[in-house]
Amino acid sequence: MKNEPIEKYWSRFPDTYDKNQEYVVGKELLDDMRKELNDLPELGETIEFGCGTGYFTEAITQKYKNIVATDVSEDLLKIAKKRLSKYPEITIQKENCMDTSFPSEKFDSVFMANLIHVIENPFSALQECYRILNPHFS
Question: What is the pTM of this model?
Fold first, then answer.
């Protein structure tokens, strides 16, 4: 399977993922980002690519109608499922953001945090975003 090396890489971090984010990005900046996310307008039907442990998913829980939080790592998704278990409007699913199983024009918003710069082919991910976004959402 083509996603196995990617999943293997990211599955090394379930216990340290949030701490690694704090180290790389900085705790103060992460806190500021979470505050800024609270100022977003309604996001409608949302998909999140690269949800990791659900750190940012949790920050936008009031901003969407429903969300599908995705990642390539089953190990990270296990942490996200535990963290986000109190939010019934969140579906957690294994997906590769460069080639998803979703139909075209399904989502109103795509959310990514700290992802585009760490994936193999950002252009493919952006093409996939364009394909699955509803062009009529406002």
Answer: 0.84
Q: For 34-73, write each residue's pLDDT tens digit.
A: 888 888 888 889 999 999 999 889 888 877 788 999 999 9
Give the number of other Cβ atoms within 10 Å of residue 124's Cβ.
14
Query: Domain 4-132 adopts which CATH fold?
Result: Rossmann fold (3.40.50)
| Pairwise CA distance, residues 55 & 17, whole Å | 10
The segments of the chain whose pLDDT lies below 50 read 1
Nearest-10 crossing angle of helices 17-25, 27-37: 100
Amino acid of residue 134: N
Strand partners, 110: 47
